[in-house]
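Session log. Operator J.P. requested a structure for one protein chain; no other inputs attached. Running the standard single-chain path with token output.
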Amino acid sequence: MKSKASADKDTMRAEYDFDYSKAVRGKYFQRMIKEGTNLVLLEPDVAKAFRDSAAVNDALRSLLRLSETTRRLTSRPGRAPRKRIVAD
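Structure written below.
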């Protein structure tokens, strides 16, 4: 049985070779925090429902608009919320 010599050979092009010894961990982390970037990880089942981040943002914006309209329907105008009495 012949062994395939080409399968053992490294087939990655030279331009894709990356020297990990020069890598910097968290290089852009402080800039990301300063600019106020938010990163939210979706569960896999939820991520399947959306094709990209724009679709997620559209869905969340529509949910926010819906919650604004329904909050006005359920809140009592002109009254302060009740205070809870906590037993000691």
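Operator note: The helical segments are 5-8, 29-35, 44-47, 53-74.
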